[in-house]
Specification:
The structure is a single chain. With 153 residues, this protein is mostly helical. It has eight helices and two strands. A two-stranded parallel sheet has the order 1-2. Helix 2 links the parallel strand 1 and strand 2.
Length: 153
């Protein structure tokens, strides 16, 4: 989906609630505001409109897997904003925050299942419940929401 013309942020949010639908935003501007707004609206990925075909494909493939690819400078800027933000830690429990922090740092489901002493299926179910609690649909969105809440570093 591309923002602009008759498409609004509310329109974008209306597409993201459908099961088995992955929405990747093609943004005319790729600054932290637009990236955060796209993920907050429920997008599974955000890519610059003029990105290379290979990069757009990589972002879409990652979104389908429940992952997100972001430019390093965007991640760094978001990290600074989150780190200096006075947002409250919200209602995440320490184990939930730990799980999301580990995912943000690249841990695999298999590694986390062993670490928490759960089966991969149990971890998947808990992650699904956690995404529901945060009102998001992807891992990337859950990590971003937790970061915005100040629950993870």
């Amino acid at each position: 989906m591309m923002m602009g013309g008759d498409i609004t942020w509310d329109d974008l949010a209306s597409f993201t609630g459908w099961p088995d639908v992955v929405v990747v935003l093609l943004a005319q501007e790729l600054d932290t505001h637009h990236v955060a707004r796209g993920f907050t609206a429920g997008c599974s990925g955000v890519v610059h409109l003029n990105g290379s075909a290979a990069w757009v494909r990589s972002v879409v493939e990652a979104a389908v897997r429940g992952e997100a690819l972001l430019a390093t400078e965007v991640v760094q800027e978001l990290a600074v904003k989150v780190h200096t933000s006075p947002l409250n830690r919200g209602s995440l429990t320490p184990p939930e925050a730990s799980l999301l922090n580990e995912l943000a740092n690249g841990a695999t489901i298999a590694k986390l299942a062993r670490q928490f002493g759960w089966s991969e299926r149990t971890l998947g179910r808990r992650l699904h419940d956690l995404k529901s609690k945060l009102r998001v649909t992807t891992r990337a969105q859950a990590i971003l929401r937790a970061a915005q809440m100040g629950a993870i570093e």
